[in-house]
From TrEMBL:
Its main location: endoplasmic reticulum. This is GPI inositol-deacylase. The keyword Hydrolase applies. Its EC number is 3.1.-.-. It comes from Flemingia macrophylla.
Amino acid sequence: MPGFKAKIRIGILIIVVVGICLAALYGFLKPISNGCIMTYMYPTYIPISSSESISPVKYGLYLYHEGWKKIDFKEHLKKLSGVPVLFIPGNGGSFKQVRSLAAESDRAYQNGPLERTFYQEASLKPEEGGAYINLSAFQLPNQYTSRLDWFAVDLEGEHSAMDGAILEEHTEYVVYAIHKILDQYKVSYDARTREGAAVSGSLPKSVILVGHSMGGFVARAAVIHPRLRKSAVETVLTLSTPHQSPPVALQPSLGHYFARVNSEWIEGYKVQTTNTGRYVSDPVLSRVVVVSISGAYNDYQVRTKLTSLDNIVPPTHGFMISSTAMKNVWLSMEHQAILWCNQLVVQVSHTLLSIIDSRTGQPFPDTQKRLAVFARMLRSGISHNFDWMMQLPSYKQSKNIPVQNTKGLTGSLVHRPVACPTNIHWNDGGLDRDLYIQINEVTVLAMDGRRRWLDIQKLGSNGKSHFVLVTNLEPCSGIRLHLWPEKGKSATSLPLNDRVVEVTSKMMRIPSGPAPRQLEPGSQTEQAPPSAVFWLGPEDMHGFRFLTISVAPRPTVSGRPPPAASMAVGQFFNPAEGNQELSPWFMLQSTYSQKDLLFEEAHPLAVKLSFAISLGLLPVTLSLKTVGCGIRNSGLPEEEAGDLESSRLCKLRCFPPVALAWDNTSGLHIYPNLNSETIVVDSSPAHWSSTQQSEKTIVLLLVDPHCSYKSSISISVSAAAIRLLLLYSPKIVGFSIAVVFFALMRQAYSWDLDLRIPSMLTAVESNLTLISHLFPLAILPIFFSLFLSLLMSQPLPPFASFIGITLICYIFANGFIAILILISHLVFFMAAVTHIFIKTRWQMWERNVCFFLIHWFVNRSSSFFSLKMVRVLRANPVLVTALTAMVLASLIHPSFGLLILLFSHFFCCHNALCSFLTASCRSHGENNENFECNSEAYIVSERMKFKFDGSFNRTFPSEENLSNSPDSSKSFGDTQLDLFHHRHGLLILHLVATMMFAPSVVAWFQRLALGESLPWLLDSVICIGVILHGICNSKPEFNYFFLSYTGIPIRNVRLYFVYLIAGYWSYFSGLTLAPYRAFYAMGAVGVISFALRMSRRWNGEKKEVTYSSRKHSHRH
């Protein structure tokens, strides 16, 4: 019965794992609508010739030219005078991917800067140096003074994300390309000088690097390359680039290369000092600015967490921003779409043009200035201030009203509020008709040219100390807001003096949905979606009595009233009234049943939903349905206010809801015109390095207070499955290796206790037993990791989610290994049955005349097998296997050496299983006379008589020779079954190791025709250690060693303890999201096994093995 329960548990586990994988696959295959506009261009690629021998022939360098006219390449190169930008493609990318960025940069240079708006702009945060630099004086130029010259390297589409050696070669060539570009400008300058052409500006001294995917990491690796010229690169922009670790962190050399580059970057931002602490020089990278842009949740290949620059680049020299939080973009996009999405490409092009100093024609030399321009151009005001609006503890602005700094008469710095420009005039005559708002809500349905007065002291009482307004009117040209200490007497002018403060510039832009259509001029339309939000806190309104909202006048259309396509809704509210805490139990219940929330009329305009479980882990499908808008109380006829017309009429009164989701990792995600959307943020909760803030997600709903809504929340199962595999696949891989090591420990421990060796499936299942195995193997390391965090003064991860997700990943890894074991069992059983069937058929037909020629060929081939070299090789199959595997791992590719080891395991398991099945057949035949073991299907009695002279010379060994245990009471079949289980465990371990090298093999085959270099020494050495493990521990008797060295207190070495330590190491490798480090444990186990075998030989035990006593007996 216990065995049956164990099988049921494994079966349920496998079903759950397969179900999660199928749900994730379904989600992956669903089409994604990212909202991007395609970018069009007329590309021409000008090759840059290379005459130096150090340049690899297989790579190339190109200059992009936009235009459909045919040009002379040499003449075009002579005109190079802009700012050089080098594009580096990513994994499998092409140099032609530069075309979208280059084409839009050319259009931006010709058409000039983006149209200026008066929404609140982002600025540098205090930790980024915002307290020491003023951005208010920064204004975009009316025309760009220098164009961008886009270059691109042709890296032959190699898979740089799969092999560390490829990354290193790409870095070498990029360094060469940077030098070549700078030299080309000198050549072009000299050529123009000789021809007497007009020469203006200065030669560029640095190149801007723009890298996509792995190309961004190559750019960073080139910056710290020892052969790069000083100050040759000072600005790096990366698109969907993994900075923290490789997206597929499986190959040891790849992970090591990432760690080495990141380590040098960390050291590069430190002040150079002597051993005694004496100052030597500024940091090596003190002039380098890095900005990373991620594609957010739709980028399945590179998660936002990987694109972060935390602990690599200090905040004073770079930042990461998600495309969903970028100004004028607001979209999440796939990994390749980030290169052609027009909204993002346009913004990036204008950003790069804006960092050019109009006086020199080159990028600003000041680091803080360049970083400030990046922040101003890429960040939006709403994403910059959202955490302040929600009163989150990450940071708080010291002064929320935008100010401009000017010098007073004494030369001191004076702060004055930012006002609308004087060149924007209204028809002030209409502002005489002031309106005095007596309720907490204020509504604007048209541009009526009126000013609305709101008494802060009266309307903001009873805890309603916050004011929020949403509108689709443009700041300054459509709407203006002022704070008054008392009611003013002048209605036609609003002077910016010491008493009246204009706060229009606090309006923050948000993306708006499609505008409603107007059937005919003057007809009423649906409410327009909001495009801006205005937020005032009590600290902003302190010292003021009135808030005025002035709406610009608008002329009538064809003598009719102006169309109701303009809107503004504001409200004084208490934030606590709109807070909704959604507990973990509430979210888990919504997985199988939809949960509803009701918002009655007169609810807060801003409703804050706090999800206790991050939406990056459990995405929710949030739908809002309008259930009432006061239509029945509006005085309309009953038939017009009926249920059938209610929805249509509510659309005329209620503005479309907007959802703003905030996450500390990926920033802001905005969902305009919210009807039914799956809300997901690209956060990274439940990791060892996660912070407490990453556990929750805040969603701010902007909903019309005049209307009532029914909100439905349900967990998206497919989206949750995708997030689980995307976020925690490195953890699952590391845990999978730990599961195999724990199973091998179980097998070795059973052998040490004179018990039968359990199968791998039984060992995996036993490791899931709660008290005896699951707690010490899976739960205890979690608490130890938390203790290490305390010891190293690191922030603790959220306990509940960290422990829960870690255990889920561990159980998932057990299911994955169980599937591998079952598949391999099926393959072995089918191969064994087929082998036995073919062998018995051969024995039946061997005396047939038609097989005479085959016998003659086999006899002739015996002369080949009698050669001395062949006999030596056949007498030492283990040595041949080891040498072949090591040579292939060292000279060709490590995976080929592992494949040889796998074939060795496979043949050993196959022979052992065939012997066990044959012995079992005969045993059943002896115990059951009716069992026809000697039938046509199984002629076992002839098994020992038949013998091939060729490759099948040794078929099934005899019982006298195959029992390796010194206990002669152990049956032949049991011996073979133990041997099968032992080698099968090694096969599963080394199969996982080989699978981890599969991406590297793909890259190796791609480069095979181009001339492959030797593999990295680190990979080869580790794989040799893995091979030694498979060779030196080929029999279960080698799980125990006895050392006879004098002076050594430990004499008995049991390998199950080594497996336990290796399993813990692999477990922690998964926790750190670095599964490639598990290879170190595999190699270490191989080195230990080899050392113990050599130690036994050096002590005179040539071929003897010290066995533990076997006390049990079995029947033959």
